[in-house]
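Entry: DNA primase
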Amino acid sequence: MPSSTTELIKSKLDIVDFLRGYLNVQAAGKNFKAPCPFHKEKTPSFMISPDRQSWHCFGCGLGGDIFGFVMRYENLEFGEALRVLAEKAGVELRRLDPAEHKFTGLLYELNAKASQFFQSALKSFAGGKKYLADRGLQPETIDEFELGWAPNEVEALTTHLLRAGYAPEDIVRAGLAIKTERGMFLDRFRGRVMFPIHNHFGRVVGFTGRIFPQFETAEGMGSAKYVNSPETPIFNKSRLLYGFWKSKNPIREAGSAFLVEGQMDFLMSWQAGIKNAVASSGTALTPDHLHTLHRIAETLILSFDNDAAGSAAAERAIDLAESADFGVKIVAFETFKDPAEAAQAGANILLEAVANATPAPRFYFDKYLPKAGAFDTNKRESIKNLRIVIRKIKQISSAVEKDSWFKALAKRTGVEERVLLEEAEKVDVGRESVAKDDDAAPLPKKYSRRELLGEQLLRVAVARNDFSSVDDCMPHFAPVHRSILGILKDGKRQSADPEIDNLMNFIVLGSADLPASEVDILKSELMKEEGRDRRSELVAAVRVAEETGNEAVLKKALEELNDLSAVREA
Ligand SMILES: [Zn+2]
């Protein structure tokens, strides 16, 4: 990607204004601050620099520019982030980069065209409209989520797209057509009610097609009940959440998300007034889905189909979500199959069920333990089940919550809490865990004391906007700080070297003045550290010179070592 494109986009978007759309940004002197969206915190340590058009979090060590923010926050690849930001900045990518346009731009275009085609086909198909109405969907919901109809013909969409001038290979690449062995192009979706899948910014990137009942058993039709678009460069199933483009803000506001299994569950929940809903469509819940949600929600309310498969899926999702540090609640239906059915019976039924969702440990109590007072410690089966529940509680990451659930478990089983805790010590949690923000918050690199001292001195200089005050440190700074001081003295705040730029980010955003007496201590410590570093370099040089018999080098190194010792002893 030519860097001129990214520079052009950056010049048109102000990072502070942009981040206001995501975070609660407050002024902090020349800079701005906000609570970090990438780690949990109460006092903001996420700093934004309008000068540098960059951000840095002093809590978790992450930082970067507007692209880095969008990629991390929205879970996007660079190419996707580029499209999103280009659109926001009003920069047309097609003209800037034909290759990029050919690669992903066409896929967006084709999916959008297909969605329009399916929508207008539904408008003229009474049977399809009746089917959706029978399932409880209102016309406004159908319009809002752009549901459609794929005619029961071999190549209706393909012909439409070919006529519009698209190449057959691109239609296949977009996942809309299939090429047969004999080289014919067939529509992937035929005789199906179409649910377009939007990415988190509201662009159609794929579809789920549900077979129309009257074709369900018809000869020659693919008998699959659901057909999904294949993965493409713009459609990543394990990351996309259905409905998230609409429910992002309601989820952020509620601090919780109602996670359902299918598109119908989502649409019916939305229609019933549950706007913080989202669905993991066409795939099981993944750690990536959870990462996306965890940035804006602390609580997950899970709902799964009321059958054995649904119960197993629920258990897996609970474990995954709890190890990712969500508070988890479960909505279980006794008489309805799923949230869609409950909502169809009455919006209030679903609203009440969600409001009365059961905390996850309670769900396990009910699944594995008899009612209070009926627990029998003499049965092997009960002990086995008790251990399962203990293991589940042990997985909760909040210690406070864990403690209160052990108390509740003691009450439920009549087994003393002390004994339960003892048992918990023995139970092995061997779980499939979501590494807690492992990739989101890499451990900051270890810095030497000399580097830390240099950094602090540079922060003081930036705060005072007086770089001559650290001129005397120049020979003692670590090489990277020498370069940074040079750049800062030139009046610049950026470096083309990403590693240096990253450190500058840290220094500029962390600028802080100190009293002169402390600055003097820092300086003398820096000199000592530099002396120590130089000494170990010389000792190593002496060893090499001795081994290789290089007398000139040996002599020079020994002399310098002597000088260093003289300075130290003076
Ligand atoms: Zn952070």
